Amino acid sequence: MRTAYQYKLRPTKQQVIELDRWLSMLSAQYNYLLADRFNWYEQNRSPVNACNLVCYLPELRDDPDYCSQKKTLPQLKKTNPWYSEIYSQVLQDVVKRVKTTFDRF
Questions:
Q1: CB-CB contact of 64 with 37 (8 Å)
Q2: How far apart are CA 100 and CA 66, in angstroms?
Q3: Under a CB-based contact definition with an 8 Å cutoff, are residues 33 and 94 in contact?
């Protein structure tokens, strides 16, 4: 027989405020990383059947993949010190969720 337990968190008001602040920062970071990937996609895609023979090609940059976006997290914590309050594993999970979202796109 398997036993399952359910726990209900009851954070204090201060903890609720802190969690809401963290969630808003993580949401902003998620949207920024996802926009970075979509901007790269829009700038670097070119339909073959609609491309002119002579056309301006923007300067190409590397694909913002999981590893390259994950490497930006230490710099994010240096430029925005309020992100240093969030655990690094949580920020890495945001990058992983962006990768999953873009792969499914």
A1: yes
A2: 9
A3: yes
- Say which amino acid occupies 27: S
Largest CA distance in the chain: 71
Residues whose CB falls within 8 Å of the CB of residue 76, separated by 6 or more in sequence, listed in order: 29, 83, 91
- Tokens for 75, please give them: 């710099």
DSSP for 27-89 reads HHHHHHHHHHHHHHHHHH---GGG--SS---PPP-----HHHHHTTHHHHHHH-GGGGGS-HH
Give the tens place of pLDDT for each residue, 43-75. 776 555 555 556 665 566 667 777 888 888 888
Integer Cα distance of 32 and 72 in angstroms: 12
Per the confidence metrics, is the pTM higher than 0.85?
Answer: no
Q: Hunting for tokens 């990768």 — which residue is that?
A: 99
Token pair recorded at residue 37 = 């990937």
Decide if 34 contacts 102 (C-beta within 8 A): yes
